[in-house]
Amino acid sequence: MKTSRRNFLTFALGVPIAGATLAACGSSGPGTENGGGGKGSGGTYWYLSVDPNETIRRNSLDRFNKAKPDEAIKGNAFQNDAYKEKIRVAIGAGNAPTVIWGWGGGGLASWVEAGAVEDLTSWFDENPDQKERRFASALAPAMVDGKFYAVPAESVTPIVLFWNKKVFADAGLQPPTSWEDMLALVPQFVDKDITPFALAGQSRWTNMMWLEFLFDRIGGPEVFQAIFEKKPDAWSDPAAIKAMTELQKLVKAGGFGKGFASITADTNADQALLTSGRAAMMLHGAWTYGSMKEEGGDFVKNGDLGYMNFPPVAGGTGDPSNTYGNPGQYYSLSSKATDEQKKAAKDFFSTQVLSDAEQSDWVNMAGQVPIVVGVDAKFKGLEDEAWLQFVYDTASKAKVFSQSWDQALGPVAAEPMLANIAKLFGLAITPEQFAQSMNKELAK
């Protein structure tokens, strides 16, 4: 695939935004047909299943179909992994749905290269309020070569360092304020037969989150920017080597316990370690808050859950306010759709996506923060107000809010990276060997 001129760093660079989130991305159940249909000919819309997110998406579609029956759009929900394969095949065959749900970034760029999605720049130009009302950090992953090919939607999800307050209190220890503190805490928890950091290593992308922050805190976001731009030997940057070396120090010290490579994120087994007190900390996406609240007994209710942004590394040049994660979700329009279907999709984008009713659904039904400037007014008085405010502050005050590496690169480029990260965590390769292998990928 041709390298597109997207800039990995064109996120919220010191621009205040009014939001954050605790979004969950999941999958369960077979593909199910939702939404109106009626006498309209607005085409189709594919999106991810799992409630409450699925219901919120369906509610928005139902509201649109009721308001505009002549443009009714038929919706279908799919499991996460099934959706990825189905949308890949559909786009390859030229049979994509009218409205395509996605993650933006590298995946979107591949759709643009295939000529599968519509250029929506003129729609944004004609509706400037649609850009202005969204978080600045959510816009870049919707763009390729300076043009919009997706509408930023739903919610923003930073990655968070969670900790169990009760475990720390019982151990007589304080939460870390630096990377050095994190390393120093490891033997103290190991001695008490407590896993310092819960990690679902088999899922691989969970491992990636650790490197994202270490690369950033040690060398700043410019280190991965060079990798994103495929600069020769970018993985051999001294900051990258140091980050991987520090990570392996943590592994060798027992920071993730035994058997972490066999734990999967899909089962929430890593979260169970934290909520049960068998682990002291966990680095994970903000979307896990909801599942910990639902599945962790009284852990969240009792106030035992602590959270913070990833601490700084001594001597590092990265701004400690920087964060990683998902700046939003993204709705694209199939370039193969008819003019009538394209009009219906754009009307849907204008009237229902991030409408006031949908915002209320995301906040009240899912405990998530939609990517709308000023949405924080909806947090007041909610049970989860403190958490919402934390995530809001993390996202809105970040000097740089970067998209997760695998989403920024896209699936083809991400696969060898994830495979090598797993080897790095398994101590099967050294940082230098990792860099050598990944530098070869840059040259392809």
UniProtKB/TrEMBL annotation:
InterPro entries: Bact_solute-bd_prot1 (IPR050490), SBP (IPR006059)
Keyword terms, alphabetized: Signal
Signal sequence segment: 1-23
Coiled-coil annotated residue ranges, if any: none
Keyword Signal: yes
Gene3D superfamilies: Periplasmic binding protein-like II (3.40.190.10)
Entry keyword Magnesium: no
Top-level taxon: Bacteria
Name this polypeptide is given: Raffinose/stachyose/melibiose transport system substrate-binding protein
Source organism per UniProt: Kineosporia succinea
Taxonomic lineage of the native organism: Bacteria, Bacillati, Actinomycetota, Actinomycetes, Kineosporiales
